[in-house]
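1st attempt posting a full record on here, be nice pls
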Amino acid sequence: MLYLSALKGLDSKAAKRRSMELLDLVGLKSVTKRKVKTFSGGMKQRLGIAQAVINDPEVLVLDEPTAGLDPKERVRFRNLISALAQDKVVILSTHIVSDVEYIADEILIMRAGQIVASGTIEEILAQVSGVVWECAVTPREADVMSARMAVGNVRYDHSGMAIVRIVSDTAPHSSARLVEPTLEDVYLYIFQEGSERHGDGSSDSRDPYLRNER
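the predicted structure (as tokens):
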């Protein structure tokens, strides 16, 4: 911390004070005597944050900061980022949807280097309103759907039926009902192939696998 402080132009007295403030903020004040190589992955990530803000930048850019962390460390790290974002612009690049849901005030979604969606969480979710479905089908039907459609989740109830969550412009099955979208559904909708968007409810009757299961 002191070395980085010197590189960023802080005098010795200010560097020591700022270092201890930040180590306390990231929960590392009690381990200042330990070598960094003995730190866990989460501790190293938090130390990296402290180092990044040592000179109090107005903008902080974080690339996949919670990747590889266990659930407890991810929660701790998300809370830390939220605290820093109170008086800074924090740009967070991540593929972990739950991090975005808990932290972000505004979201940008990029595909092939281009911004394809932007807005608050509510505005982003509104873009997939009316295209997220759940339906109860047989396991074989679930396999066919998973191969042909944008399936977000499959779970099985006590009777052995598959409860399938699908992102589709049209009803994917006669039993399908609309459900509230999540950011994961937005991701599936934007990045799926065009043919996956059209789960025509009438097409299942022409499919031999789906037809034979009825």
